[in-house]
Design brief:
It contains twelve helices and 18 strands. By secondary structure, it is α/β, with parallel strands linked by helices. Strands 3, 5, 6, 9, 10, 17 and 18 form a seven-stranded mixed β-sheet that branches. It has a six-stranded parallel β-sheet with strand order 13-12-11-14-15-16. The chain has a three-stranded antiparallel β-sheet with strand order 2-1-4, with no helix packed on it.
Length: 344
């Protein structure tokens, strides 16, 4: 049987490629994809085409079990599932020493399969059942696990002040998680909040519990923020482009932790004053949520409405309108946070 999936094959161009489904191995599952979120990483692939080779799109996947291999006995056909795009190998030294988050042999489906497509064949370990959410809502679980990892690495303590840079799904989720961890004041920084896109994200940030939202396009935003927070911030979470890490370091207080997650294939250089960093005993930590953890927590955050999907799921598109979806995601004159691709 043939199926279709989406690949970037040159800058700002997506091809829907038809492939033949292979037979399942004993420990594998065939997932019929129903929805896939569009991530900022997908947008980088679309805009920059960094590898210069055909690149699969999509890793925020929800669907149902179509078929299981002969060795899979704990999943029923029709079960609603999300699919992790990376899992630990369980055989390298890190995994065998109970540190799967340091796995040196990560397993992924994204070498030859795309999450934006009709089907995925993956190991049973990549498949996580869920209930009580729609397929579209369930696509948010993956980016929420990234937010969970950021906040874990930030190690937010009671009554600490937190600065969150970047009001996308991950940054907005960090507002909720920071509050649940007991943060005192939560400030969110966005860029060009005077745009339609920016104004909507500012509105959502306040609805999710931010105490203050600041526009980094304003000429003296850091000076003004320092006047309001003279001791600066105990924890800084950077979900905006890497070039903004230096601003995060500047806004971090004594012995503060700056945690970042994000990539940029065209501009990833960061400069900062090392002496100031050293004498203030600041710490810079990269969060790379691969393999992902926290899916059960992410499901509960969504089901309990702590992260309301209705605020961040802003657009849906069919698979054959992918380029329109990506073009819209690039625009500042749309109230866009998270587009989702529907696959029928």
């Amino acid at each position: 049987m043939k199926y279709t999936s989406a690949w970037v094959d040159k800058p700002k161009h997506i091809s829907l490629i038809s492939k033949e489904l292979r037979d399942l191995e004993a420990d594998e599952v065939l997932v019929r994809i129903k929805a896939c979120g569009v991530c900022g990483t997908d947008l980088h692939f679309f805009n920059d085409f960094p590898s210069k080779e055909s690149t699969p799109l999509g890793h925020e996947v929800a669907g149902y079990v179509e078929m299981v291999g002969s060795g899979v006995s704990d999943l029923l056909k029709g079960s609603h599932v999300v699919v992790q795009n990376n899992i630990a190998c369980n055989s390298c030294p890190s995994c065998l020493n109970q540190k799967p988050y340091l796995c040196s042999n990560i397993q992924t489906y994204m070498d030859d399969q795309a999450g934006m497509g009709e089907y995925l064949i993956v190991p049973r370990a990549m498949v996580i059942p869920f209930e009580g959410l729609s397929f579209v809502e369930a696509t948010l679980a993956e980016p929420i696990t990234v937010a969970l990892d950021l906040c874990k690495e930030a190690d937010i303590q009671l009554f600490e002040n937190v600065l969150i840079m970047g009001p996308g799904v991950i940054g907005l989720s960090c507002i909720v998680l920071s509050r649940l961890r007991g943060a005192s004041k939560i400030v969110v920084v966005g860029h060009h909040l005077d745009s339609i896109r920016g104004k909507y994200r500012e509105k959502v940030a306040y609805q999710l519990g931010a105490d203050l939202v600041v526009d980094s396009a304003a000429p003296h935003w850091k000076k003004e923020l320092k006047e309001q927070f003279p001791d600066l911030f105990d924890r800084v979470i950077v979900t905006s482009p890497p070039k903004t890490i230096s601003d995060g370091i500047d806004m971090a207080g004594f012995h503060a932790q700056i945690v970042f997650n994000g990539i940029d294939f065209s501009d990833d250089k960061v400069t900062f004053n090392a002496n100031d960093f050293h004498f203030a005993k600041k710490r810079l930590i990269a969060s790379h949520a691969i393999p992902n953890w926290g899916f059960p927590q992410a499901f509960e955050l969504l089901k309990q409405g702590l992260i309301p999907s209705s605020l961040v799921l802003t657009h849906t598109f069919p698979l054959n309108k992918l380029e329109q979806a990506f073009a819209m995601f690039n625009k500042s004159d749309e109230e866009v946070i998270k587009p989702v691709i529907l696959i029928h």
